[in-house]
Each structure stands twice: as structure tokens, then as C-alpha cells.
Amino acid sequence: MKSPISDPRRRTSSSGYRTPDHRHTYTSSYDSSGASTNIDKSNSSRNPLAAAARSVAAVFVACFTPPDESNSKSFVDSREFKASSSSSVASDSSGASAQRRQGSHRRLSSSSYKLTQGKEPRSLNFTMEDIFRATRNFSPAYKVGQGGFGTVYKANLQDGTVVAVKRAKKSLYEKHSASEFQSEIQTLSRVEHLNLVKFYGYLEQGDERILVVEYVPNGTLREHLDCNRGNILDLASRLDIAIDVAHAITYLHMYIDHPIIHRDIKSSNILITENLRAKVADFGFARQAPDTDSGATHVSTQVRGTAGYLDPEYLKTYQLTEKSDVYSFGVLLVELVTGRRPIEPKFELKERITARWAMKKFIDGNAISVLDPKLDHSAANNLALEKILELALQCLAPRRQSRPSMKKCAEILWTIRKDYRELSAASDFHSFSSSSQKRASIKE
Fold first, then answer.
1. Which of 95, 201, 277, 315 could form a disulfide with 49 if both were Cys (CB 3.0 to 4.6 A apart)?
2. Does residue 71 belong to any structural domain of this protein?
3. Domain range holding 266?
4. Is 82 assigned to a binding site?
């Protein structure tokens, strides 16, 4: 099998399944500066420091897996987290500069595919003919989503593997979509995390461009908040999802050779597993973060993203940093607790921008009024609501210097979840005790 490939230079627009929705994708112009920016992977076989850094990062990924329900240890106090975190930083400080100046792309054959990452011991091979067969020539019956990049299909490969096949649409903006396609390949082939959609491979043949990723069967977070997937998401599940997303973004920002800014964090790009855990998708707008070792503080680039989630400072200055993802995450936190979309045109003017409306209510001491009406006003829910909105307020600070890092967001959310579980357990115990006493008095 040959495996030479074209040099991927810019990004694809989706790594997840996107429904024709409520989203308003903001594209002020094509990211010309991004087109010439490579996000290369260091050649670890020639660079022992790179191999060591990646090895430590792998340990850290394990630490970032969601804790067991019975684990009362907090994210902040976790000895494993602190040890692997400090090791990763130490490795990065010694070798990151060299790593960022050299790299080599991992590529797949355009006529066939081989699994490049993941923990599966076996490898998969497929051709374009296999994809046509698995999707019945891209039959509408196999369609599971639609987005800016194109259409997403569910496919069952010959060996039984179920995958999501993203087929680029053939549009007039061929150069733009090609750039985003290459971007997503480039990003996905470099990352591996429990809370990121897994990359399986891609195909380019004639005018067909196909991206093959993990199939996540339970829809998007937005669909769950809209109750299009059955049961209402309780606040405990929403907290778990927020932590999963925070872990994924922290990994992108801090624990890979060349940190990545996702640039399109939103509820329709978060896929939900059958166990109600989150996987971040869609790396079409992703950008390599500024090289802080060389003194860079931001990446100058045209604005890409989705209206309602966009960092206002980035909009004004065209300066992209990791804190732009933090702002989008703040909007997502508000979305999780209110159930509303970031922009709600049907509401009156003062409630139309959900984050602005919710923050005003919170500052005025009326946070309880923004809780999703589908959720109960229990003591645990009300306490978590206050604390989540307090974190969202920090993330939504107008100036990026005032926003916390994603790592800090994850730490705060772990603490909120710990307090939430303790209060919920205490409330349940109190309710059980009261019920038992009532039954005992009735019998007497």
C-alpha cells in the first residue's frame, strides 16, 4: 500500500455530524494567513525529546479521563494530575521550541486507508469503492447530518466497523472547502483524547473528498437540550458534559506538541455518547496556537466561527488566542444551564443574546430565573447554577487577559460537581429519612 500524500495545509469544516440548524456561521473572509500555516507533527523517531514529551502527554490523557462516580478526589487535588501536568510542562519547556520548528505530516493513501491512531490493535483498509458500497452510493437513507463542510453519512464497513463518513459538498467555493478539509485532516491526525472524536482516515479521488471519523450514535448536545433525543438532560449530566469539553480543550491548548485553538466550540459540535458523555468534533476552523516560546502572543487571522459564540475581542482585533475558545466555552456554559441557544431571535430584544441576558440576571442577584424550565429548582441545582454562571462570567470577560485558562475552568467545574453530588446525596438522604419517619408514624 502506498502512503505518500499531498501536504495538508488548512482545515476541514466538520468532524462531527451537524444538523441543518439554528447555527449562523460567521465567515468574514477566507483565512488567507491560515492557508500558509502548517501544523506539523514532530518527527519523534529522530527527536527523543519529542518522544518523551508525547509519552508524558499520553499519561496526562489518561488522567483527563472522567473520574469514577465513587471517586471523591477533586481535579485540583489529584496527585496524578499534578504529577503528569508538571512532567508535561517540564518536557515541553526543554523540547517544545525545537519541536515547533520541525515536523512531518502523517498521511494516508488517497486510494486506501489505514488506521493511524487509536488503541485498536487491528488496522482497517478501505477504498472509495468500499465507501460507495457502505453508504449505498450516499443514499439519503444513510444521512445523519448536514453542515457547512457537506453531508455526513453512517456507514458500516465490510469488517463491521461503524463509522461516520463526511462527504465534502461540491460548491463554487472549492478552494475554501479544500482548505478546511486539509485542515481537519491535519488536526485530527495529531490528536487523540477520550473526549475528541476519533479520526480514521480520508480519501481524495477525482472531485470526491471523504473524511472518515468515529460514529457517535447519540446526536449533538444541542439536540439533547432541545429534547429531540428523548429524555431531558438533568443538571448532573450537563455538568459531566461541561467537564468533558473542558478536558478536551485543555488537551488541545496545553498537551500536544503544537497547541491548537479549536475556534468553533458550540453545542452542535459536541457529540453525545450513549452514556451521555461528550466528544468534541469539527476541526475545520482550527488554528495552531501562537508559539509562546518565540514571544508570540496571538495569531493574526480573519474571523472564522459561529455567531453568538465569537470572542468580541477577536472580532475587533483579528487577534486569535486560546482565550477565544474560553469565551466560546463561557457561552456554552450559559447554554447548558438555560437550555437556550446563544441567539434567540424570537425573544424580546433584551433576552435575544442569551449570554448577555443571563449575566445581567446573575449580576442582579436573580440567577434562579435563568435556569432551564425543564430542570427542577432543587437546592443542589440552584447552587450549581450560581457557581456555573459565576465561572461563565469570568470566561465572558471582554478582555482576554481577564479570562481563566481552560485548565482552570476544568478545575473549577470539578469542584462544582463534587459539591453538587454531596448536596444531592444529602438531600436524598434527608428525603429518605423524612419518608421513613412518616411511614413509621402512620403504622403507629
1. 95
2. yes
3. 221-426
4. no
